[in-house]
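We append the chain.
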Amino acid sequence: MAAEPLKLELNTITAQIEPGSSSHEIAEIVVTLSGKTAAKLSIEPIDIVLEEKGKSLVPAGSTNYTLKNQLVFTPGHFEYQPNGGPQQFVFEVSARDPSISEVRYGGLQVTASPQAAKNSSASGSLAAVATFAIVPAGLDLNLPKNQVSSATLSNLQLVQAKRQTLADWIFPDLPGVVNSGPVKLVGKLTNKNELPVFSRQTVSWLSDGKQLVTVDLPQRLLLADQSIDVSSSSTTKIAGSNIEYNFAKQFQNISVEVQEQSFLGSRQLDTQTVEVSVLVLPWKEWLLGLLLGTGLIVLLIRIRKGKSRPKQKSKREPTTLWLFLVWVYKNLKRRLIHRQ
């Protein structure tokens, strides 16, 4: 009999340490594990490389910026024993060599390996990866190889989150106008440096200049020359339920202000602020209604005119197919007569 499968949740998705700084020498990787199967919870470094399709995980030691042999984990592993609910575990991470002088980065892979009990079968291992960096406290960012700038926001726009009506599918979107909510913010965030940077964004939604809600997007680590998607929606879940509330109402001018803050270690880089706006206006339904109404009026006028005219025998013009068949018949008849 198979036990309930394990569920692994990574509470810490990105972190860093700064050897030489008294307040940032240790980072915590927090993990939540649940399920009715005993398991061993372990952590190890893994390399992350950037490819055309995005980030890929490769064995530790594959890159020149690897975290392999650079970290100490306390404890090295945990033994999970089910007790009827989820359990939280904390790994402390520190630098093996506090005098490290260069930036190292990659991933920390947390793995839950089920331990099969008697008369039961264990399911497969679960794994999750947090991004991680070592940034020396004395790193001189004025050196050419260490120069870094903030990640760059680009192509920010507000679009309709999903097409909901027939009119949405018939008519193309107009620039600066959204037919109906919810509204979605989309864009790109690019790190153009040769070093990684951490980035976090604060998204402020406004209506006619009045603030509606502010959303803090999760902090993320961008590899060198990496570009990632940025998105936020005009919906929020009502507390205590799964119901989503859309605050981008019709006939409103919705604007979004995105503030981007990049940093490396304890060094804060320049803040970037970008604002975009859109008008929420159900013009597609109006246009479709106008076209359908006009078509109906034209049809009724034609029907009424047809009824007012005296009935006449209509002379139907022969079709091309009928003329062709007549021509074939006449030619066949002529040939038969000629043969006789």
